[in-house]
């Protein structure tokens, strides 16, 4: 004969709570199993019968039956695991976070893990763990630029309206210049990519001159009209406009999205637009070049062809850019503009409130 077990008698509140735990379909299944064990024992079943019914061992039933008899509902929760006691108190963590956010070290612009460890008496690894836990990165800084254009709202609505609801029988072109593109050559040959080893090139380089790319991006198709010039004056811009005018069908109006660069507003340029009334100008707000979709194309050109390229002369650089334009236009893909004017303006408003702390 085994040792006699102490019968379990539940109060109404305990039975209700155990039944609630036992009905859990997915979460806290360990707690649900323990609740079913206690409910089975409280119904008068022997430990062996409960074990068979729940397909667990007799020892598991005896363990949680005993725990419930000693501590009731609280005995069914997991006990703290053994381990070394905490060496860093909550007050120390709070002091470290406060110092990170509200101060800077002497003769430095930001905290490092070593400086903070010296200032607080904690280890460098402890500082690093706390910063990761609170997503603090003092070594990083991001830049931003807010437009001070008094007609910022009107210009945003105008340009975004062109992107999301373009006019009928018209072409929308985003126009800009990518100036001072350098033809850089490395002082040593580039070492090619190998398994386990990335491509390598020397840090120093030789400048072989510069060129400028005038580009017009068709918002609807993604095609780009490009023209390369050694200078970036209004004379070159006028020649580029003539190239654009020859490429666009005469039956279409043309809406040009441009920035406020001085070349675009020279008297001769204004007279050219006056002689071509089918052109309609839309200027982006100052310090808001992100509204001009051709800037995204310039980013792709830099990333895919220029930044890691080696060019022994300006002629080689220009040939590479022309080849890139030809290949791009063979299979163009327009950029998908999804943000409407209201969402953009609300985002800018939230950022202004956060940076100025004005509450308005």
| CATH secondary-structure class of the largest domain | Alpha Beta
Give the radius of gyration: 35 Å
The helix-and-strand class reads: alpha/beta
The number of domains is 3
Strand fraction band? 5-15%
| CATH fold title of the largest domain | Nucleotidyltransferase, domain 5
Biggest sheet: strands, sense, closure?
Answer: 5 strands, mixed
Q: Return the string of H and E elements.
A: HHHHHHHHEEEHEHEHHH
Give the strand line-up of the largest sheet: 3-2-1-4-5
How many DSSP E strands? 5
Shape: elongated
Low-confidence stretches: none
- Label the CATH architecture of the largest domain: 2-Layer Sandwich
**Portion of residues within helices:** 40-55%
> How would you name the CATH homologous superfamily of the largest domain?
Ribonuclease H-like superfamily/Ribonuclease H
Can you give the mean pLDDT? Answer: 89
Distance between the termini: 80 Å
Q: How many distinct helices?
A: 13
Molecular structure report:
This protein has a five-stranded mixed β-sheet with strand order 3-2-1-4-5. With 360 residues, it is of the alpha/beta class. The mean pLDDT is 89. Strand 4 (253-258), helix 10 (267-275) and strand 5 (279-283) form a beta-alpha-beta unit. It has 13 helices and five strands. It has helices at 12-22, 29-42, 47-54, 58-71, 90-102, 113-120, 124-133, 152-164, 234-247, 267-275, 294-306, 314-330, 341-356; strands at 170-186, 205-218, 224-229, 253-258, 279-283. It starts with 11 loop residues before the first helix and ends with a helix. It is elongated, with a radius of gyration of 35 Å. It folds into three domains: 12-76; 90-133; 152-190 and 210-353, Nucleotidyltransferase, domain 5, CATH 3.30.420.10.
């Amino acid at each position: 004969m085994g040792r006699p077990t102490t019968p379990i008698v539940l109060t109404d509140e305990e039975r209700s709570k155990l039944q609630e735990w036992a009905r859990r379909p997915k979460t806290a299944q360990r707690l649900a199993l323990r609740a079913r064990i206690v409910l089975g024992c409280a119904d008068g079943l022997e430990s062996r019968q409960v074990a068979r019914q729940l397909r667990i061992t007799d020892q598991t039933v005896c363990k949680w039956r005993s725990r419930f008899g000693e501590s009731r509902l609280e005995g069914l929760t997991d006990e703290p695991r053994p381990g070394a006691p905490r060496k860093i108190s909550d007050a120390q963590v709070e002091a470290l976070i406060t110092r990170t956010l509200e101060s800077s070290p002497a003769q430095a612009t930001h905290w490092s893990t070593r400086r903070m460890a010296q200032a607080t008496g904690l280890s460098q690894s402890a500082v690093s763990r706390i910063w990761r836990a609170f997503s603090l990165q003092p070594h990083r800084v991001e830049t931003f630029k807010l437009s001070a254009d008094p007609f910022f709202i009107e210009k945003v609505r105008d340009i975004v309206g062109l992107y999301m609801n373009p006019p009928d029988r018209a072409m929308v072109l985003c126009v800009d210049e990518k100036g001072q593109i350098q033809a850089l050559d490395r002082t040593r040959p580039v070492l090619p990519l190998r398994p386990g080893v990335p491509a390598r090139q020397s840090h120093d380089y030789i400048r072989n001159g510069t060129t400028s790319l005038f580009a017009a991006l068709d918002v609807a198709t993604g095609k780009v009209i490009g023209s390369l010039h050694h200078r970036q004056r209004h004379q070159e811009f006028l020649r580029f406009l003539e190239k654009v005018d020859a490429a666009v069908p005469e039956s279409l109006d043309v809406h040009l999205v441009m920035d406020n660069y001085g070349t675009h507003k020279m008297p001769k340029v204004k007279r050219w637009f006056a002689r071509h009334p089918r052109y309609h100008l839309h200027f982006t707000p100052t310090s808001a070049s992100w509204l001009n979709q051709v800037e995204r194309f310039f980013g792709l050109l830099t990333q895919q062809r220029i930044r890691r390229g080696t060019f022994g002369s300006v002629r080689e650089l220009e040939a590479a850019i022309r080849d890139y334009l030809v290949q791009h236009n063979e299979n163009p893909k327009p950029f998908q503009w999804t943000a409407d004017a209201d969402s953009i303006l609300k985002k800018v408003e939230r950022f202004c409130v956060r940076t100025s702390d004005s509450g308005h």
